[in-house]
Design goal:
Elements (H helix, E strand, L loop, with lengths): L1 E6 L2 E6 L10 H13 L5 E6 L3 E3 L4 H5 L7 H11 L3 E6 L2 E3 L3 H6 L2 E4 L4 E3 L2 H4 L7 H9 L1 H8 L5 E2 H7 L4 E2 L5 H14 L2 H11 L1
Parallel strand pairs: 2-3, 3-5, 4-6, 5-7, 6-8, 7-10
Antiparallel strand pairs: 1-2, 8-9
Helix pairs in contact: 1-3, 6-7
Length: 202
Amino acid sequence: MIELSQEAGVWTITLNRPDKANALTEDMLRELCEIMERAGEARAVILTGRGKIFSAGADLDAARAGLAVSDLWERLSGAIARLPGLTIAALNGTLAGGAMGMALACDIRIAVPGAKFFYPVMKLGFLPQPSDPARMAALIGPARTKMILMGGQKVLTDEALAFGLIDRIVEPDDLAATARLLCVDTLAAPEHIAHGIKAMCH
């Protein structure tokens, strides 16, 4: 349910459970962690999904069994944030719940028209993962972060772009090609220069 392809320095990781809205089980989440922890050798990493939803977050049965508060979410977003190469979330559709952390930890987020963004942890009785609010606030500001996390608001694609939650809106047929195009200059540059520029941006 997690696909990995490696080509010319680019690792593409694809959530492939479209019949369940790419909801993440514990096994899927653990596999994502392990892949991202090995991805330091990649020059660029693209994270995307199959179907029309990027991810609905935790699988409901798994969430009830404790996955909603698992430290695997934080392990995953931390592993993504630590990668020295360029990381791109190519969001093929709606992004919800704990899966938000994966995208927030990436360097760049692109999304298809019609995608929605929401993180309804408060009404479900959980805190968000520890690093997610700070990463979100760094992108869109504290008030808008509270609007999503405390106000329970769903943000549509155009508003997400205006906020800075995503960086570009891309038609579905162009999503994969656009993500690859964003990697071209990084792949062509000396590795230490690309890594150095990313470090300087933080």
